[in-house]
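Here is the promised in-class demo. Please do not try to memorize the tokens; focus on the logic of going from shape to residues.
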């Protein structure tokens, strides 16, 4: 009966389209057009799942807006001189949400053994978590050990400096054994965590409702308990145009991303918010650790195995014009290599700019004057990026380089890229964790897809040597220099055509404050208020 009352209460709150409060309650509302597939952090591989899981769960550590690693459930940690033994000292004031999975429905305190259970669950092949790779560097025998309730030991088989950042991913959230045993596969829709919000209800394809966790352990600088919000409501309107209209009516507090259905209405040609809406909403944008690119399959037996010809393609694309005319000038042209702005290893002059004379000279030197004799290059993409690919098609055509655009369903495109069956493809890479290694891993020979993210099948011993050297040192400056050198080497070999560095774009109602500026585009509502 109590649960029915709570559900009814939230439905009434969300139904009040023009008001954010019901009496003294603050409800934050946003739409997720892509939907949410699971509230189990073991399957938090995409942003729509990650956003909700970030409200429901905590891990040992968290990633700050400055991309540094900070304590969460751990108070502090140490790493031994070998770089393979991590010791975490846990807080003693973190409790799981109240849930009928526990005795008398009261959530119990989190202990070290809960992390061991949660991590082993990710490693269990029967769970089939896409996050299993996070623990790829564990030692084979007894990688986890609890010392009492408050100390957790983790052992790696070799040093891996980005490991702390990996532990900040939602895959590594702590879960109670009781919750998994009670709900089984239905844990996806009956989540039990420790986060700032607790689960209320989920009407699939309609709405998710979360309530404030009154027992949350974090406090603000003044000693006030977080979060400030009383509830969060996530809607699932698939049509972006309809969601935009609802946002403009005030039915949503946040609209994330830029879509063609409203981009020209809201933004000026220079990417600023249209003056007509400055009194109603505000635009928040900052660098997003994401690079959009075209990738060559370097194992394809064609002329495009030649790095010089791949360079010609890089020089033939005017990224500034592409961003200006196709993306409202809100993204950064990728002239600085594959590692995006905001990362330590980013180099502003590592990549390519538009150089028509250089393109023509390369084609002549390689025996293809004006593109004569070159085989047709087939670029595969999905419908969302057709305009981008047709723009590139036109630009290459100006130099006699013939390119066809092959539009595929997203699932087919993803599978064919992974299997190495596409000659040239559009792709993007979003940082899973804030380390340059995350981007350079796409070119390490041992990571060739489908076992890893090396979709271009790039294979160069010199690169691999630099990559391994970076993993063997813990000095951040040395590592950043090595990754910058790797990126320069990748640009010289040109297995990819970096297009632009993405930006986090958030349209927010004027009465909302406290939103973070996270370069990984994680939604953090702990300190958000609605006036």
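The designed amino acids, position by position:
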């Amino acid at each position: 009966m109590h649960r029915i009352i709570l559900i009814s209460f939230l439905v009434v709150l969300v139904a009040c389209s023009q008001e954010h409060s019901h009496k003294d309650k603050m409800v934050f509302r946003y739409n997720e057009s892509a939907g949410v597939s699971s509230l189990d952090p073991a399957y938090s591989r995409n942003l729509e799942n990650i956003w909700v899981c970030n409200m429901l769960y905590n891990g040992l550590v968290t990633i700050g807006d400055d991309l540094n690693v900070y304590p969460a459930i751990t108070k502090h940690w140490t790493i031994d001189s070998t770089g393979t033994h991590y010791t975490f000292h846990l807080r003693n004031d973190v409790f799981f949400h109240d849930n009928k999975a526990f005795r008398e429905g009261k959530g119990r305190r989190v202990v070290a053994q809960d992390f061991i259970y949660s991590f082993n669950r990710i490693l269990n092949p029967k769970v089939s978590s896409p996050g299993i790779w996070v623990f790829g560097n564990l030692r084979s025998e007894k990688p986890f050990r609890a010392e009492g309730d408050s100390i957790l030991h983790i052992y790696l088989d070799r040093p891996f400096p980005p490991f702390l950042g990996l532990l900040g991913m939602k895959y590594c959230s702590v879960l109670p054994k009781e919750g998994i045993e009670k709900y089984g596969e239905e844990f996806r829709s009956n989540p039990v965590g420790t986060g700032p919000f607790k689960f209320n209800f989920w009407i699939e394809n309609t709405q998710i409702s979360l309530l404030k966790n009154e027992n949350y352990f974090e406090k603000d600088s003044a000693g006030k308990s977080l979060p400030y919000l009383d509830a969060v409501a996530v809607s699932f309107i698939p049509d972006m145009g309809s969601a935009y209209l609802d946002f403009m009516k005030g039915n949503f507090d946040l609209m994330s991303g830029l879509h063609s259905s409203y981009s020209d209405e809201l933004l000026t040609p220079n990417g600023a918010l249209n003056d007509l809406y400055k009194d109603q909403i505000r635009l928040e944008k900052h660098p997003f650790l994401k690079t959009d690119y075209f990738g060559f399959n370097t194992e394809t037996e064609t002329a495009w195995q030649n790095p010089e010809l791949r360079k010609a393609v890089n020089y033939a694309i005017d990224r500034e014009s592409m961003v200006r005319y196709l993306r409202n000038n809100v993204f950064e042209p990728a002239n600085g290599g594959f590692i995006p702005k905001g990362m330590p290893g980013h180099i502003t002059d590592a990549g390519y700019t538009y150089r028509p004379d250089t393109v023509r000279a390369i084609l002549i030197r390689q025996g293809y004057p004006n593109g004569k004799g070159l085989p047709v290059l087939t670029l595969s993409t999905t419908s969302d990026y057709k305009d981008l690919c047709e723009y590139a098609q036109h630009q290459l055509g100006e130099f006699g380089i013939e390119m066809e655009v092959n539009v595929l369903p997203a699932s087919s495109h993803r599978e064919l890229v992974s299997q190495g069956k596409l000659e040239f493809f559009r792709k993007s890479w979003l940082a899973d964790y804030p380390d340059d290694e995350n981007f350079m891993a796409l070119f390490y020979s041992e990571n060739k897809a489908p076992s890893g993210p090396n979709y271009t099948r790039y294979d160069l011993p010199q690169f691999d040597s630099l990559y391994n050297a970076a993993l063997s040192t813990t000095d951040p400056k040395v590592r950043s220099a090595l990754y910058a050198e790797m990126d320069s080497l990748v640009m010289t070999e040109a297995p990819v055509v970096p297009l632009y560095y993405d930006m986090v774009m958030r349209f927010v109602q004027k009465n909302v404050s406290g939103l973070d500026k996270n370069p990984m585009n994680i939604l953090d509502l702990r300190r958000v208020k609605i006036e």
